[in-house]
Automatic annotation (TrEMBL):
Species this chain originates from: Thalassovita aquimarina
Name this protein carries in UniProt: DUF1491 family protein
Gene3D superfamilies reported in the protein's UniProt record: Protein of unknown function (DUF1491)
Pfam families in the cross-refs: DUF1491 (PF07372)
InterPro entries: DUF1491
Length: 53
C-alpha cells in the first residue's frame, strides 16, 4: 500500500454494461470510486501530470 493513485478503465462501452460492471465491483469493493469523464475527443486526461502521480 503505497498510497499512489491507480487509474484504470475496467470496462467501456454501452452505459448499461458499464453500470452493471460498476454494480458488480461495488459488491466486493464498497470504497469504489467512479469518475465519469465526458470529452468530445474521447480523452480522459488521467495520465496528465498531477493526476498520474
Amino acid at each position: 500500500m503505497t498510497g499512489a493513485r491507480k487509474w484504470m478503465e475496467p470496462v467501456a462501452g454501452e452505459e448499461r454494461d458499464v453500470d452493471a460492471a460498476i454494480a458488480k465491483q461495488r459488491g466486493f469493493d464498497p470504497d469504489l470510486w467512479v469518475v465519469e469523464v465526458e470529452d468530445r475527443q474521447g480523452r480522459h486526461l488521467l495520465d496528465e501530470p498531477g493526476l498520474a502521480d
